[in-house]
């Protein structure tokens, strides 16, 4: 058990990009992640707009929204003392999210390649066709006005045209670079969580205070109503997940309690 | 005792609107009787700054403090009264009435001994020129101003106007930077001016210099990363009501919010926070335009109109969904503007998103309790940009990430700490900045954590952060007079002790709602002087 983390520890970053304190990097990483996950909310709008999305897109959007509370909660507590449980849950969520995200990237990449990736210049992509029709129809409302959406002009052979190979290269390179960044961000989160756990363990031992902090579980009273019940259940689930996450990571990093 | 003299870490060669925590007593006008200024204030203050901000020659200051004393008397006699003071009731001037209201609710907060919140009304150019001569340029200053001057020089050369037109404009701007009254606003806004200059010069850059326009990248990358083209999802259904809902933030609110946020920061934020906003807002937009120039990319409306056909610089822009707004209102509000846009193929990153996120982050910092409202505004604006087919989701994320990075840097380097017990700009008697080394939750060096034995030999982790704690600021405030907002929040001594003994040290984070509920120590040992200020050992610095 001890040998496994040591391999990982060697590649964990101790500073964000070698210079920035790790906790600052974690703040930025979580901020970026939260912004990215907001895309899931807009994906659900397809229910209203009628834009077709497939099963895997639904799953992706759902997962994005589901992990948002974990990241938001962690971001609010980056510098808070005693945040090890919260970050344990965040760390495990982030690792799983990254692994699942890589599969989704691969899946969506292949899907894009076979639907749009080999569409020649001048052709409309299948996905944009219906939108373009709708868009133009919408613009014809109030057609008496002179302010019309102008018909597309045929591109003149002039400066600025990008070649297919250049575009494809940029798409592939960007995907690889973003994926590498994502892996690095995951390592930074793992490193930060590991150091927090280690620090807490050392502090506990050195101060000879082995007592576990009493968890202030609130007791649900039936008279409080169903909203209170939901809150109680949510907090209970969150505390439970955080506790188990910390226990799991303590074992993984071979940190003595 | 609080820091007496404040010198901004913010890069700049000219003196700013605040120089010292206390005003000079040479004028004898603004120091109440019985108040003795500590000698350290006069010793530590800069003579030029004293000259600049003495206020003795400023009639507004005299009137102000005359009023303030009257107000104080009136307010103390009826503390809970909401009516305005009666000393100036004989005057029927609307201006005076407005001034009285502002005075009652804001200026009365001001400590009469503190000049931190005052503006500089000096118009003597010599003062700034002398200051410039004596100014010691740091590496940060050179990078900051060197970069901005290079961009401005590029705009100056590229803009196709006669030198007879350009030089007077440059001279006028130079004058604004030379006069202390105007330079206190123009200098912090220099990144914003640079961004505007570059943005409006973009169209004048020769096409032979420009890079190829990417048409396929953004929709493809968005599909790979997010599983779909979200702009297509949101633009698939249009309705006039949705058009109006999309137009309001995208076409109207977006252009006015930066000014509103600036005004709110000036009024409710600590002194110097508006400079941080100007710095962050300007640099975010400047970096955004540079990225748009280096990576030209077509917005969603291009794909809807032209498919994946290559774009070129002979093509104009398009109003996208805003053309429907022109139809609704019946006149050309956007079509011409967007058709002749300076950067028609500048989809990535979205500066609409960047601005909205920047405003959101500053508003969360300023009014954390309303954070859901500010985040809701960002979500609303994101929906608008995609619905109106002006940006892909990846553009929005690009702008938002750019904003986040610039804001994070600004918040840890330039942005003062907003104290929850301070009501407005005039409530502050000192300015605190986050010390990002001190609030690091990993309080022991990383290498030490990797070898636990080292830590144990050092006698434990928290020996390094031990120390008595009490609420910060209480011991640091000048106790000669206390603003209203402070008096209601000062715990009595017993409360301070009990609060400090039960509260664990929780360093502030800029993202934390209660981030800046500070804790400090009364112990002098924690006040370790550094070059940039005084480290308190509790997560913030007082600039000396």
From TrEMBL, chain A:
UniProt keyword 4Fe-4S, yes or no: no
GO molecular function: inositol phosphoceramide synthase regulator activity
GO biological process: inositol phosphoceramide metabolic process
A Pfam family this chain is assigned to: Kei1
Annotated TM spans: 12-35, 55-75, 87-114, 169-197
GO cellular component, one term: Golgi membrane
Keyword Transmembrane helix: yes
Superkingdom as given in the UniProt entry: Eukaryota
Annotated keywords: Membrane, Transmembrane, Transmembrane helix
UniProt xrefs under InterPro entries: Kei1
PANTHER family, sorted: INOSITOL PHOSPHORYLCERAMIDE SYNTHASE REGULATORY SUBUNIT KEI1
Protein name: DUF1753-domain-containing protein
Organism: Scheffersomyces spartinae
From TrEMBL, chain B:
Keyword Transmembrane helix: yes
Compartment(s) of residence: Membrane
Keywords from the named record: Membrane, Transmembrane, Transmembrane helix
Superkingdom: Eukaryota
CDD domains: PAP2_Aur1_like
Region Disordered: start-end pairs: 1-38
BP GO annotations: mannosyl diphosphorylinositol ceramide metabolic process; sphingolipid biosynthetic process
UniProt GO cellular component terms: inositol phosphoceramide synthase complex; membrane
Positions of transmembrane segments: 142-163, 169-200, 207-227, 247-269, 276-295, 343-365, 372-390, 396-415
InterPro entries in alphabetical order: Aur1/Ipt1, IPC_Synthase-Related, PAP2/HPO, PAP2/HPO_sf
Chain ranges of the Phosphatidic acid phosphatase type 2/haloperoxidase domain: 274-411
Name the UniProt record assigns to this protein: Aureobasidin resistance protein Aur1
Organism the protein comes from: Scheffersomyces spartinae
């Amino acid at each position: 058990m001890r040998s496994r983390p040591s391999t990982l520890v060697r590649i964990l970053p101790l500073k964000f990009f070698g210079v920035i304190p790790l906790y600052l990097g974690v703040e930025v990483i979580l901020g970026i992640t939260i912004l990215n996950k907001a895309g899931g909310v807009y994906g659900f709008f397809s229910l209203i707009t009628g834009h077709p999305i497939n099963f895997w897109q639904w799953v992706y959007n759902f997962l994005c929204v589901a992990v948002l509370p974990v990241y938001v909660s962690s971001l609010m507590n980056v510098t808070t003392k005693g945040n090890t449980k919260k970050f344990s849950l965040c760390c495990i969520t982030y690792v799983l999210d990254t692994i699942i995200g890589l599969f989704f990237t691969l899946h969506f990449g292949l899907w894009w390649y076979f639907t749009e990736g080999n569409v020649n210049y001048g052709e409309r992509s299948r996905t944009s066709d219906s939108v373009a029709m709708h868009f133009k129809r919408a613009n014809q409302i109030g057609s008496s006005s002179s302010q019309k959406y102008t018909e597309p002009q045929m591109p003149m052979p002039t400066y600025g045209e990008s070649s297919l190979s250049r575009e494809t290269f940029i798409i592939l390179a960007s995907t690889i670079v973003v994926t590498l960044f994502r892996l690095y961000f995951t390592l930074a989160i793992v490193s930060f969580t590991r150091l927090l756990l280690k620090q807490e363990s050392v502090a506990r031992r050195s101060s000879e205070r082995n007592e576990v902090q009493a968890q202030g579980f609130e007791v649900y009273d039936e008279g409080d109503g169903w909203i209170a019940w939901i809150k109680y259940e949510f907090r209970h689930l969150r505390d439970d997940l955080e506790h188990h996450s910390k226990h799991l990571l303590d074992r993984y990093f071979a940190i003595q309690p | 005792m609080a820091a007496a003299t404040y010198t901004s870490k913010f890069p700049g060669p000219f003196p700013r609107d605040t120089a010292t925590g206390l005003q000079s007593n040479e004028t004898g006008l603004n120091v109440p009787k019985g108040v003795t200024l500590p000698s350290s204030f006069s010793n530590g203050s800069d003579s030029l700054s004293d000259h600049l901000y003495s206020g003795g020659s400023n009639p507004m200051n005299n009137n102000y403090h005359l009023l303030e004393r009257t107000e104080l008397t009136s307010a103390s006699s009826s503390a809970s009264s909401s009516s305005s003071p009666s000393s100036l009731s004989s005057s029927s001037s609307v201006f005076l009435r407005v001034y009285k209201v502002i005075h009652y609710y804001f200026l009365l907060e001001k400590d009469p001994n503190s000049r931190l919140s005052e503006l500089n009304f000096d118009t003597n150019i010599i003062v700034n020129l002398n200051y410039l001569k004596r100014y010691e340029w740091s590496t940060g200053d050179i990078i900051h101003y060197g970069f901005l001057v290079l961009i401005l020089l590029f705009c100056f050369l590229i803009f196709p106007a006669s030198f007879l037109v350009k030089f007077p404009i440059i001279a006028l701007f130079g004058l604004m930077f030379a006069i202390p009254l105007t330079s206190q606003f123009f200098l912090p806004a220099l990144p914003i001016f640079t961004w505007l200059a570059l943005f409006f010069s973009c169209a004048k850059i020769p096409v032979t210099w420009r890079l190829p326009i990417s048409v396929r990248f953004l929709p493809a990358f968005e599909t790979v990363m997010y599983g779909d083209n979200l702009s297509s999802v949101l633009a698939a259904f249009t309705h006039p009501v949705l058009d109006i809902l999309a137009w309001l933030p995208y076409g109207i609110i977006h252009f006015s919010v930066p000014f509103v946020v600036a005004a709110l920061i000036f009024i409710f934020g600590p002194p110097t926070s508006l400079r941080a906003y100007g710095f962050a807002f300007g640099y975010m937009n400047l970096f955004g335009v540079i990225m748009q120039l280096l990576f030209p990319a077509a917005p969603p409306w291009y794909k809807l109109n032209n498919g994946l056909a290559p774009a070129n610089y002979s093509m104009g822009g398009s109003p996208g969904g805003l053309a429907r707004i022109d139809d609704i209102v019946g006149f050309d509000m956007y079509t011409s503007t967007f058709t002749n846009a300076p950067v028609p193929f500048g989809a990535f990153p979205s500066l609409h998103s960047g601005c909205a996120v920047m405003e959101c982050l500053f508003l969360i910092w300023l009014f954390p309790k309303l954070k859901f409202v500010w985040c809701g505004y960002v979500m609303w604006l994101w929906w608008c940009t995609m619905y109106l087919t002006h940006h892909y989701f990846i553009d929005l994320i690009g702008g938002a990430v750019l904003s986040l990075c610039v804001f994070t840097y600004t918040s840890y380097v330039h942005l003062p700490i907003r104290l929850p017990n301070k009501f407005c700009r005039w409530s502050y008697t000192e300015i605190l900045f986050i010390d990002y080394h001190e609030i690091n939750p990993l309080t022991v060096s990383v290498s030490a954590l990797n070898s636990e034995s080292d830590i144990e030999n050092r006698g434990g982790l928290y020996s390094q952060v031990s120390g008595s704690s009490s609420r910060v600021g209480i011991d640091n405030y000048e106790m000669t007079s206390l603003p209203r907002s402070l008096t209601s929040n000062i715990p009595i001594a017993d409360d301070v002790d009990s609060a400090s003994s039960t509260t664990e040290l929780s360093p502030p984070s800029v993202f934390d709602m209660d981030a800046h509920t500070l804790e400090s120590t009364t112990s002098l040992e924690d006040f370790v002087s550094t070059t940039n200020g005084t480290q308190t050992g509790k997560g913030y610095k007082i600039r000396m």
